[in-house]
């Protein structure tokens, strides 16, 4: 943008930008049509068109490209949309925080968690965050894969993410620190585990069993596939695919032929809550470590308190200190 005057743009935005403008931008990105946006916002298309023109006048450049296929953000529009989404989510969280305080609680925390994280670890960290017992912490847990959770972290839709520190992740605007490394464990029903445990690890025998695994294209699923490929066998086709560790545990406990490979901390939890048994085999894998992800621009006091509680719990369970930090600001 030649001749861009940042001070003038900031003056215009400070004087004229409203939350309804941000909502308009997000709706245009979602629906790609001013007609559909007008219907969604109970307005007329001319009014929506005028509002977008007003917005683009504030920014001094087009925010969307128009074509017969609809409307797509310009490069500037992508930047504005990213901030608009964060600002709208911040407003929603502000209202939730107000509701929390009015109800006598201390704060509300949105935590993003990948599947196959031990509930014991998460529960202990939450309970320790505000230990004085005077005012309670309220929490919403959002479960998904690491990449979409990090996108939500950048958009301020979640406050903290517990995920895998994979080299393939987009770490723009995010910092992370390693918490612990998960080890693989084979789980089965008690009778099947007893039978398998009487012999040495036999991959051709394992591949013929009924496998219950996580979703395709996830780090966990790829690690299991790599184990079989390393043994010279095609990976088994699972009879059930699920991101729910609890469901996997319940199905395996009820079957005489079903098995799964899950992280050791999750396996130990499923022994307790689902009645599965860990088969005493040793495996090797290169699953990325579990890490704590936060936004680079800083955190609220409650976010910092939860992060420290999580570090303490991980030190007590896994030993040592949290590992290296990284990310891109």
Polypeptide structure, described:
With 329 residues, the chain is of the alpha/beta class. The chain folds into three domains: 78 residues, Arc Repressor Mutant, subunit A, CATH 1.10.10; 90 residues, Periplasmic binding protein-like II (D-Maltodextrin-Binding Protein, domain 2); 96 residues, Periplasmic binding protein-like II (D-Maltodextrin-Binding Protein, domain 2, 3-Layer(aba) Sandwich). The protein has a six-stranded mixed beta sheet with strand order 4-3-5-12-6-13, with helices on both faces. A hairpin with a 2-residue loop joins strand 1 and strand 2.
Number of β-strand runs: 13
| General form | elongated
Low-confidence segments, ≥5 residues, pLDDT <50?
A: none
Major sheet strand order: 4-3-5-12-6-13
The percentage helix is 40-55%
Total of DSSP H or I helical runs spanning 4+ residues: 13
Rg on CA atoms, Å:
24 Å
How many structurally independent domains? 3
Instruction: Please name the CATH architecture of the largest domain.
Output: 3-Layer(aba) Sandwich
Short description:
This protein has 329 residues and is an alpha/beta fold. The chain is 47% helix and 19% strand. It contains 13 helices and 13 strands.
Detail the topology: elements first, then pairings.
Elements: H1 6-16, H2 19-31, H3 34-40, H4 45-59, E1 64-67, E2 70-73, H5 75-102, E3 107-113, H6 119-129, E4 137-143, H7 146-154, E5 160-164, E6 174-180, E7 184-188, H8 190-197, H9 203-207, E8 210-213, H10 219-230, E9 240-241, H11 245-253, E10 258-263, H12 264-273, E11 277-279, E12 290-295, H13 301-318, E13 325-328
Parallel strand pairs: 3-4, 3-5, 8-9, 8-10
Antiparallel strand pairs: 1-2, 5-12, 6-12, 6-13, 7-10, 7-11
